[in-house]
């Protein structure tokens, strides 16, 4: 009777496994018909504990012994094609290995998902979890990878462009002085996991080495500056159109208000985190200090993704976001502006809820629609300012933009306005890009083509559709535009979009000037490549001042009757002042005007000295 129970149990066991994964055979152990298979370990993972496999073998032997009376029946069954199954596994799970690792849980070796750090049993009805043979574990992981929880975790992971969850090493630059090195070391100890923030700190400290060596009192000032005045993290619950509840995380960092009230962008993107919020607000603090206005710096946003959301869902999220943030905003405190994922729709919803909660609309947010606030060219200001700045750089070289081939990344507001103004100056912009690849048109874009690109983006179509209308253009999947022959590059997509290999491609493609449209578009390794190749870099801290200028003009002057010519005249004058301030600071500290580092170091030096002198005057606050 006990033997019959064991047979039924084995049969039930076999049925469960067949139900979980098709063509799965428990009797095939790891290594059968392919000795190399058992030696293949998962990426960066210790091999599976042999205790679990011994447990499986003893379990199979027990079942085999119990079914001794039925051996003749089992012999008559056709043999399994083990080699074919093992080969199929090796091909199908080649990508899965990248997402998996082995760890011991409650004394049993299990295969975990690298995205959400859970194993199959957590998300399945399989009573055996993913314990047992390697075959059963892989079946459990397959079902886990198809679960809704895993797909959501995978979506968030892909959004951050990190395919494997590992600790990314921080690239530490070689510094001339021990004092500068100690400042970087202190920042690393305090915030070891905030990679973007540490990277931005390194670039600033590197630019300030000569300043610190001349005046050691600035060391303590810099230590205070590197710590934000206020960091706000809050939850943002909201309800979608199916009445399902979601929770996102909101951020706002008031980095420094020495010079005046804060101004800075809001970014809605799945990759948004505290490190990015701090790096953006730190950069905005320096950018505002370099501008003609006395302003502090801030930034923030949420890991909410507005793409694919209805207007109602975006409105409910924005209202919930503002329910917490409004108490920290105001014309003399902090006013947000548009950034990645935040356009006129989002800013309208945010401002409406702010007005409702605050009971007034003083100091309306920068960037909303012209019919109820602000200047008519606010959205164009940043992109136009980049081109104006490039023209100033070229003018000092006795050159002009006319006829130069320009590679542009991104296809958002800034990139589109860069294309517009490049065409107006007679340049030949040849590329734009999105998250999936880039589009190149060797004939160059014109105003008609830009209008078509805007229609494609408005309809949320792929840039690939452009090639269906213009046959001489081509779209490249999973690639960047930096290998295309160009004279000037305008990275306008996101931070760290240019890595070391991209920088090498840029140098080889003939690029001699890089104008940063996005914040910190180059990795530290890429910056080193560009400097060694004498590529002149116009930093976003200086070249991106146009957005700050337009925002303050619309708040302070509130003149809705400006002509585009008047506005551009004011913008050009502000960009010229910024350019001259950066160059003067660089030459004051011994950098040659022709040096590729002059603008980068000069912009940081000028901004830092403005803030530092104010901090010294105001005391230790």
TrEMBL record:
It comes from Anisodus acutangulus. One of its GO terms (biological process) is glutamate biosynthetic process. It is an enzyme of class 1 (oxidoreductase). GO terms for cellular component: cytosol. Keywords: Oxidoreductase. Residues 375-619 form the Glutamate/phenylalanine/leucine/valine/L-tryptophan dehydrogenase C-terminal domain. Belongs to the Glu/Leu/Phe/Val dehydrogenases family. One of its GO terms (molecular function) is glutamate dehydrogenase (NADP+) activity. Gene3D superfamilies: Glutamate Dehydrogenase, chain A, domain 3, Leucine Dehydrogenase, chain A, domain 1, NAD(P)-binding Rossmann-like Domain. It comes from the Eukaryota. This is glutamate dehydrogenase (NADP(+)). Its EC number is 1.4.1.4.
